[in-house]
């Protein structure tokens, strides 16, 4: 391997270490505790080195947001592949969405602005979960009308995101009760897709 490839690999590793350190700090201290200096201390670099990779804390947050949407998309794709029937795919995808939010609490908070300001820049990566779910909704409804499909998506999203947000703020009603409420909502809304 040449020196150019080694240098490039080292830069990518440093970039990954910065993002990993940022996530570790957030898990310990919350998003309000994240700073460029703390990241630098965690990876034993000076703060100016961090700025060579990310121009600001907001740039790190944006990168983490994109990574979060990539992870969510992967989980949704895997959930969809488990079933052939679109109704079952949709339920499985929303349940995977719920599980993602609870397994990746800090990431979800960043992605959707729960208890913080989120990075609102949309990219193909941030739109991918929406596209995956609306594709299945369109199949169930047997329509290409983007406005109707979008309305149904946001009907699902507002209920599911609301339930997730309530639980992140105050632990809600317990896992068993929440999952039953979630399933009831998914099944109820899915029925309206067939009308």
Automatic annotation (TrEMBL):
Residues 35-54 bind DNA. Keywords: DNA-binding, Transcription, Transcription regulation. Residues 12-72 form the HTH tetR-type domain. InterPro entries: Homeodomain-like_sf (IPR009057), HTH-type_Tx_Regulator (IPR050624), HTH_TetR (IPR001647), MT1864/Rv1816-like_C (IPR025996), Tet_transcr_reg_TetR-rel_C_sf (IPR036271). It comes from the Bacteria. The keyword Transcription applies. This is TetR/AcrR family transcriptional regulator.
